[in-house]
């Protein structure tokens, strides 16, 4: 659980690097899922980051980082 919390906190540190925020939040989500924990704050962070990627039109950055 400590790793999940750590990655969740890391995900909110990167103000303008939305892709890095998303990567850390998704790693945290994997740890939470392994422990059958449902952390709604982390889920909200994931949703907000996806929203920001759409708003700021960062699709190209996302496809290059996750492929």
Keywords:
67 residues; mainly alpha; elongated
Describe this structure in words.
This protein is mainly α and 67 residues long. The protein is 76% helix and 0% strand. The protein is built from 4 helices and no strands. 22% of the residues are buried.
Structural class assignment: mainly alpha
> How many individual β-strands?
0
Binned strand content: under 5%
- Tell me the overall shape: elongated
| Order of helix and strand elements from N to C terminus | HHHH
Largest sheet: none
In DSSP terms (H or I, runs of 4 or more residues), the helix count works out at 4
Question: Roughly what percent helix?
Answer: over 70%
Rounded mean pLDDT is 88
Distance between the termini: 27 Å
Radius of gyration: 12 Å
Unreliable spans are none
Gist of the model:
With 67 residues, this protein is mainly α.
Write the layout of secondary structure elements.
Layout: H1 2-11, H2 18-34, H3 40-55, H4 59-66
